[in-house]
# Entry
Amino acid sequence: MKCPYCGCVDDKVIDSRASSEGNAVRRRRECTKCGRRFTTYEVVEETALMVVKKDGRREAFDRKKILSGILKACEKRPVSLEKMEEVVTGIEREISRKFDREVRSRDVGELVMDRLASLDEVAYVRFASVYRQFKDVNQFMSELRDLLKKAGK
# Structure
């Protein structure tokens, strides 16, 4: 590790401990040349998860896109931002657990719809209407019938 003060590459580790969130190791170091102390963090290098779109294009997974869609679906609904963030975090965890490097956009959309169905039925229908690109009222009514059947169980 290069000393940020003098540039020397020789140091000694004085203390190591897990960061407060547990996703990094915090190391307190001392430069052997100038004697100054500095802190470094060691984290796991994660491979970027790619989303495979319907047309075959690939783009980096973006949590903000999921949150944006959920925010639109939940607009003017009694759903807190905290709940929406929890949904996004849950989706993100499930994707990381189930998929290694690539996930189809269809799988992401289905996960969002599953979570929205249990969070808020109106938000679910709003999201589904955009996601499934309803062409007419019959498709919309079909989705509502399915939702009512699930709610009745």
